[in-house]
């Protein structure tokens, strides 16, 4: 009774803790640019003339560029930017922003050759930082009367004396330091504020982003001054930031954009909500499945699963990981793996109950026999996750990090916590005669006191899997070959065998939303972007390789219709039953657009967005989105190289681990089965022309790591049954053992697959479109993985063992022949004695 009460108290406490902390966990989620909006750019650092730095200068130049970029991102007030050096001359910058306009401003601030300039309150240029300050330590943190100040090292005291005298004797003795001053915003700027100068609107936060310092001179300085200070009511961090910005000054290098990926904030927020809802639906579906299959044991799994999700999210938050579509998908896969750990243990416990063991004894034996399978399957998945982390991009690393955390907490929570909670139930005296509450039918439990033996051996006890296994194996590989051959049809018609995303093939992707009916058809899009387009900013001379058009709707209240009418009339948009159609257009180009065209199309869409903003009401009439992404050949080639490395290293380490834990025949069979799973997904994507992007690599490695779980569990049971059978195992014995092992483990494999497929289906139906291809790959891979674990892996294992038997027999035969020959050579010569042996 005490154990049961302890279980109830513990369960209620854990659920309460999880529910109470969920709002805080969600608020601390660091959304990636896919959800929050923003951009990711890979820059190549070149010298001022656009040429590569020499080998001796490259490291110093890249480090300096990274510092400058960090300073410039900081002046824009960006939170949690990610700036990392890649290779020997590249820098990847990832920045989240709340609007497309802000995104463009930050990009411009980073890559422009913006100078630090000294100006008066009327914006008159007095001097540049390069002219006035020392290049090294031109601005540093110092202290005056215990308060932080910024100390400037003056390079030209005479010039400094002249400009401070001029400013001090003026009506407004302020000297303002600017980063990237632009004359065109002087009178009336894009934010809707007016004034004679930037100084008059300095309180506006948008304008203030480019003001480094707005200081009032207390005196004019003489020509002997070599050091001055800027003081104010700022904290030490503010002083450090100001000094860094002043030192950044103008840059002496060029930043070339190799790849750009941007996401609109509106689309991102919707995608994040959709992904969370999909994850929640998947979690509920898995919980229902576990309780219906395992009763009280399933209930403990649901409680543990809730704690597992909370702790994993907390861990990811503490690491300041970014939540993107791949991260959510990794969490879903992690849930499937976590549930799998419980399913393995529960199935083993059920096996012991079906033998007639007591509940407590069945629990002890079930956990003992299941631990090695759980450990081996999670380690093999960890190998795939580490390979992803080593060679992946930002999003792939996020996926891998979440997967690694999931594996760790699967062992800690889903094995440790779940085992402890289940032990309270299984050792409770009140439940010893209620074994049927743990997912076992009462009529299937034998009474050992009446000498009854096991009478139920599972759903597949009479299924002969090996009878037609070879036909299924040949059929599956046949499907793969046919799909790959049909891909040649695409090669003949379109000139491309695969539908590669721009990450692998290089090129440009344009995405936007519009109410203009011209963009409702492919013909209209081709006309709008063609060389004879009436919209001059959109004219492209090259081929539009792929155009995808979708439909959405916005609902307009009757009272708001007057605000919308001018826009609707301008674009000839229709309104039916208060709904206006919105066309989502995605255009893929297999080449990188020129910088001039990129500027042109950016200006067009940014101007269009302003038309949908009502200045009187402050309402954005239509949630528009526009993004232009491109990848250079250099980045595409590097992405392909890293993808191949990830797959090869993952396969190699899996071979080594499985061979170490089992035998080489098991290892080779498992790897070929995984190759089958990967090829099957690849073939389906080839046949249906589904785009293959960087997320495809994540999906393949996730499938490899996940699919090997089923194979490892099967091999673990095969090894156990072989050890029980003793020595002198024949090929027929192995066929029988493989068959019986499948009969014993298939229920677990199917439940594991179903639990994960449920969450993947939830993501496909309710989740973000940005991760649709990833989820399709996962769905196909899970089906293929289950099939390969049932048929391909055991059939190949039997064949490898058969080959080994033949080789062993040959060796024995050779040894036998050698011994016979040696015996004959050493046999003593017979002498003939007449009358005795003649």
Explain what this protein looks like in three dimensions.
By secondary structure, this protein is of the alpha+beta class. Helix content is 58%, strand content 13%. The protein is built from 23 helices and 19 strands. It has an eight-stranded antiparallel β-sheet with strand order 3-4-2-12-19-14-16-15. Strands 6-5-9-10 form a four-stranded antiparallel β-sheet. The chain has a three-stranded antiparallel β-sheet with strand order 7-8-11, with helices on one face. Helix 9 (265-294) packs across helix 22 (731-766), helix 14 packs across helix 23 and helix 20 runs antiparallel to helix 21.
Topology:
Layout lengths: L1 H26 L2 E2 L1 H4 L1 E9 L8 H21 L6 E5 L3 E7 L3 H12 L4 E4 L5 E4 H4 L6 E6 L2 E7 L3 H12 L5 E6 L25 H4 L2 E6 L10 E4 L5 H13 L5 E10 L1 H30 L1 H23 L3 E2 L1 H30 L4 H33 L2 H33 L42 H26 L7 H4 L1 E8 L7 H8 L16 E10 L5 H10 L8 E11 L5 H17 L1 E2 L4 E2 L5 E6 L1 H29 L2 H24 L6 H32 L5 H36 L5 H55 L12
Descriptive labels:
alpha+beta; 8-stranded antiparallel β-sheet; 4-stranded antiparallel β-sheet; 19 strands; 13% strand; elongated
Mind telling me the C-alpha Rg? 35 Å
Number of strands: 19
Please state the structural category: alpha+beta
Strand residue content? 5-15%
- Ends distance: 96 Å
Q: What is the helix fraction of residues, given as a range? A: 55-70%
Let me know the largest β-sheet: 8 strands, antiparallel
Contiguous helical run count: 23
Record the strand order, biggest sheet: 3-4-2-12-19-14-16-15
Low-confidence stretches: 184-206
Summed over residues and divided by their number, the pLDDT gives a mean of 81
Q: What is the overall shape?
A: elongated
